[in-house]
Amino acid sequence: MTNNKILKNLIWLFFDKGIRIFGGLFIGIWIARYLGPSDFGVLNYALAYTAFFLLFVKLGLDQIIVREIVRKPKLTSYFLGTAFGLKLIGSVVSIFSIYVSLFFVEADSTTKIVIFIISAGFVFQSLDVIDYFYQSKVLSKYVVIARNSAFILSSLLNVYLLVYEYDVIYFALANTINLALSGAFLVFVYKKTGGSIRKWRFSKKIAIRLLKFSWPLALSVFLISIHMKIDQVMIGNMLDTEQVGIYSVAVRLAEFWIFIPAILVSTLMPYFVNLRETSSESYHRRLIQLYSLMFWMGVAVGLVTIIFGEDIIQLLFGEDYIGAYGALVFNIWNGIFISQALARGIWMVSEDLQKYRLYNNIIAVILNVTVNILLIPTLGITGAAIATLSAQALSTWVFSFLWRPLRTSTWAMIRSVNPIYLLNFKKGEGWN
């Protein structure tokens, strides 16, 4: 795989995320100002609640499918067809589970309606397998075209809802329409580039194989969802939806820069899979460089947030959301450990060590929930952010030492704090 191809792919992905992140932030700010902390909290509470049920939709298949297509390109139609079938069944299970769960949740009727509308979009995420195909070919421009077309149309719909002052329920509907349009455009682009969904084939044998590899990742994604979203649900239950709305501003701003590590990981995954097969020395050397890059990007963003965070919140969202500053600072620093964990995901998938990610996440979720229970009543939304940061940091740098296969990788992540690995990495140096 040529450096030129990787660079072109990165440019396309940054173009995609630039439009979606900045455009989404603009629309999000407008929606937050229009709805106010209370209704904005309802919308974000619903998004957090439904995220807990994505286990059956995601199934941990994204990196697994990319890896398998890179290794066995002749079986692409079977990998795509099988993954699509699994995700479609999973989405139906998720929607039904959410419907049943709403009978046991203490929430007003508007909140329940918003939750169910958002969950309806799960079925369209089955078509994300097309994205996996283009990731394996390092051809993300086609996904960029499809998803940005959907994003632009759904953004125009949101603007219409804002101008004519619609209720929060309609903004939830716009979210689902965005997923539907994204799926439709992915299919359109796939056909235009020579692909055919009719050639997809479901294989029971491949399904079992994929689930065998992906179940630790699937549970890890589920636990990560709990880890990242439980704070908003607990704030809604222990405080109120208005505090959820304020906290959501902190979370959205903190997630603003994570698109950079996510793009790097998705683009470099095929590169590292190939590099592992050709040079173990270079493979480990490049991984520790990537860990170092993730760390120092996070530090830079964290320092800027401490200095200018309060002004940024007031400028963008207004005085009603100024209370999000403390939560924003802690959530921003959490990004360091999230981005390093994303980078290590490349290594863990390549080495089939996904189960250890699961073990780490189980401990992290238990810790996060426990600290949330202790800190939210006393420190409010800042306490929730502290809980998330402490759990993520310990999961990434401490709990990993419990598992022998992860120790060298974890030590490499800690050592990568030294900028020499980023600025002047010596040829031939690896984990040691």
The Rg value, from CA coordinates, equals 21 Å
Name the helix and strand elements from N-terminus to C-terminus, one letter apiece: HHHHHHHHHHHHHHHHH
Structural class of the helices, strands and pairings?
A: mainly alpha
Uncertain segments are none
Structure, explained:
- By secondary structure, the chain is mainly alpha-helical.
- Helices cover 80% and strands 0% of the residues.
- It has 17 helices and no strands.
- Helix 4 packs parallel to helix 9 and helix 13 runs parallel beside helix 15.
- The chain is globular, with a radius of gyration of 21 Å.
- The two termini are 27 Å apart.
Structure summary:
This protein is mainly alpha-helical. The protein has helices at residues 3-51, 55-58, 62-71, 76-101, 109-119, 129-136, 141-163, 168-192, 204-238, 241-255, 259-278, 280-317, 325-350, 354-379, 381-397, 407-415, 420-423.
What would the keywords be for this entry?
single chain, about 425 residues
